[in-house]
């Protein structure tokens, strides 16, 4: 058994001690915000914080985490009010979204170390792979979040905490049986 804290909750995993943290989080704790990408630590989709440091969770067996504190994207800010989350939306960073949780976690860890990181610091800290190529917006979002944290700027509102599932599907009006299915032109 391996014991450590995940998102502020003490957890005891009864898994093989060699189980990667990624799979303990996703499969045993149902924390699916941490994504599986490459499984080799290269892409960064699985980035979480361990004792405040950004780490690739696919590369750490849970046996090495005894007594540690792990934070996933789900607990970075439950209401999405963390400056990096706000800036991410304000700068229109997301495209497909798959790599975003890992990038956000890496960026949040960077901002804990440097309130106003340089481009070189950003490039060194954010080694996550984004196939959509959002890196210029990522840099701007990190700089903006640093300004927000420093009190130099505000972002008007946090992004909404989610979409109610019943609102996620569009309601398509029923066609009048006598009406044409062709749109009016």
UniProtKB/TrEMBL annotation:
Gene3D superfamilies in the cross-refs: 3.10.20.30, [2Fe-2S]-binding domain
SUPFAM superfamilies on file: 2Fe-2S ferredoxin-like, CO dehydrogenase ISP C-domain like
Alphabetical list of PROSITE patterns matching this protein: 2FE2S_FER_1, 2FE2S_FER_2
Annotated spans, Disordered: 147-185
Domain 2Fe-2S ferredoxin-type, chain residue ranges per copy: 1-76
Keyword Isomerase among UniProt keywords: no
InterPro entries: 2Fe-2S-bd, 2Fe-2S-bd_dom_sf, 2Fe-2S_ferredoxin-like_sf, 2Fe-2S_ferredoxin-type, 2Fe2S_fd_BS, Beta-grasp_dom_sf, Diverse_Oxidoreductases
MF term (GO), any: metal ion binding
Keywords, alphabetical: 2Fe-2S, Iron, Iron-sulfur, Metal-binding, Oxidoreductase
Keyword field contains Cytoplasm: no
The protein's name in its UniProt record: Isoquinoline 1-oxidoreductase
Species in which this protein is naturally found: Allosphingosinicella deserti
């Amino acid at each position: 058994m391996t014991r450590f804290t995940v998102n502020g909750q003490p957890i005891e995993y009864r898994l093989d001690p060699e189980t990667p943290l990624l799979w303990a989080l996703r499969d045993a704790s149902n924390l699916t915000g941490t994504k599986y990408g490459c499984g080799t630590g290269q892409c960064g989709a699985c980035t979480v914080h361990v004792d405040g440091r950004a780490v690739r969770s696919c590369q750490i067996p849970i046996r090495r985490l005894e007594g540690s504190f792990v934070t996933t994207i789900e607990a970075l800010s439950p209401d999405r009010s963390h400056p990096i989350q706000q800036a991410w939306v304000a700068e229109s960073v997301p495209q497909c979204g798959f790599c975003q949780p890992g990038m956000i976690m890496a960026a949040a860890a960077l901002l804990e170390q440097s309130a106003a990181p340089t481009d070189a610091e950003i490039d060194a800290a954010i080694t996550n792979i984004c196939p959509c190529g959002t890196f210029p917006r990522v840099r701007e979002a990190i700089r903006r979040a640093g300004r927000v944290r420093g009190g130099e700027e505000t972002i008007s509102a946090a992004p909404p905490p989610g979409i109610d599932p019943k609102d996620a599907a569009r309601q398509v009006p029923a066609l009048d049986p006598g009406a044409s299915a062709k749109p009016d032109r």
